[in-house]
Amino acid sequence: KYDYTKYHPMEEIYRWMEEVERRNPELVSSTVYGHTIEGRNISLLKLGLENSEGKEKKVIWVDCGIHAREWIAPAFCQWFVKEIVDSYKTNKKLKEMLQNLDIYVTPVINVDGYIFTWANESTRLWRKSRSLPPGGSDCYGVDLNRNFNANWGTVGVSFDSCANTYCGTSPGSEPEVKAVMDFVGRMVDQILCFLTIHSAGQLLLLPYGHPHISAPNYDELVSVGQAAAVEMKKVHGMNYTVGTSPQILYPNSGSSRDWARLIGIPFSYTFELRDKGEFGHLLPEEQIQPACEEAYAGALSIITYVHDKPFTNGSLPDTAVATVTVSGVTMMIWSTLIAVLHTAV
Ligand SMILES: *[C@@H]1O[C@H](CO)[C@@H](O)[C@H](O)[C@H]1NC(C)=O
Ligand SMILES: *[C@@H]1O[C@H](CO)[C@@H](O)[C@H](O)[C@H]1NC(C)=O
Ligand SMILES: *[C@@H]1O[C@H](CO)[C@@H](O)[C@H](O)[C@H]1NC(C)=O
Ligand SMILES: *[C@@H]1O[C@H](CO)[C@@H](O)[C@H](O)[C@H]1NC(C)=O
Ligand SMILES: [Zn+2]
């Protein structure tokens, strides 16, 4: 019996993935979609049911563990899969959603970094990947959540390879990031929602991290986020704050959340799970269950909205990806003009 209230080393998570797939063949399948710099598999579990009409399904993306030390994130991805596996047969709404949607869950993207944090006490707070130091440096690792092709290298990053926010040598230079960009990019037209799970701070961040760009569906992103925060608070009374990164955390660039919205995925959020600073990335195991219960309620709230919009209400997804203000002039940007956006801001 797998203990979801403990943190697990990577080899146990890999074995758990195999076991979940083996026990639930009608719901779960797995895919290896990339390799880390040290050659390990980056794998996801796909959760979805056949629909009788055989119509094309939409996709929800959920990833965890892009920052190595944020152990509550992989714990959440495992919890999330367990909840769905345990309840879809009896929960009619969930079953309906799984007939219309496939949910792709990556429990750990930064596998090398995660393993490094388990190596010994002195490396427990490692954040980055384990890519080799660039010439003239002896500092390993890139901040994978600064390496995506989204206003790369502009704000909230460092070009010093020893810094925790080192953004790499070019957008997508890291194999872990390239793997996500290639896999998600290939099915962008199917993806309704991109959720990326981090800690800590109890925040729900929405696009964009760059202070000069805003999402055309900003108001809707805020209201869907706030509805999720209400659901999260109902579970254990915890406050989650909703906003863009510049509003409630700090400006940043190169994040997967911004990249997902920029390529045209209408809903994109970063969850910053518990806590608000007492334990930070060293969240005690006693808090895994409550943290995951509230985060599950929040994720399900967003997924339900995102599902109902096309499947119940019949609304078309948004196609514009950003409004940009340059020299006082506000422009609406569509995905065909992304190249312009990357150079203009
Ligand atoms: C990596 O994935 C491949 C399938 O693509 C599998 O055959 C192999 O055993 C996996 N490697 C490890 C170390 O799990
Ligand atoms: C901890 O792990 C790091 C990286 O593998 C290693 O350099 C260091 O010597 C280890 N420290 C201890 C106390 O084992
Ligand atoms: C949550 O936020 C509200 C409003 O900011 C505040 O009144 C309340 O004390 C907070 N609750 C907790 C548990 O932090
Ligand atoms: C669907 O339509 C109903 C009734 O107009 C509305 O209350 C609800 O917010 C809509 N839901 C979504 C996800 O658009
Ligand atoms: Zn993080």
Automatic annotation (TrEMBL):
PROSITE patterns: CARBOXYPEPT_ZN_1, PEPTIDASE_M14
Gene3D superfamilies, alphabetized: Zn peptidases (3.40.630.10)
SMART domains from the UniProt entry: Zn_pept
Cofactor(s) named in the record: Zn(2+)
Domain Peptidase M14: 6-306
Residues making up the signal peptide according to the UniProt record: none
One Gene Ontology CC term in the entry: extracellular space
Keywords, ordered alphabetically: Carboxypeptidase, Hydrolase, Metal-binding, Metalloprotease, Protease, Zinc
SUPFAM superfamilies, sorted: Zn-dependent exopeptidases
Domain of life: Eukaryota
Claim: Protease is one of the keywords in the record: yes
A UniProt-annotated Pfam family: Peptidase_M14
InterPro entries: CARBOXYPEPT_ZN_1 (IPR057246), Peptidase_M14 (IPR000834)
GO biological process assignments: proteolysis
Active site: E272 (proton donor/acceptor)
GO molecular function terms listed in the Swiss-Prot or TrEMBL record: metallocarboxypeptidase activity; zinc ion binding
PANTHER family xrefs: CARBOXYPEPTIDASE O (PTHR11705:SF19), PROTEASE FAMILY M14 CARBOXYPEPTIDASE A,B (PTHR11705)
Record family assignment: Belongs to the peptidase M14 family.
Protein's name in the database: Peptidase M14 domain-containing protein
Organism: Echeneis naucrates (Live sharksucker)
Lineage of source species: Eukaryota, Metazoa, Chordata, Craniata, Vertebrata
Gene from which the chain derives: cpo
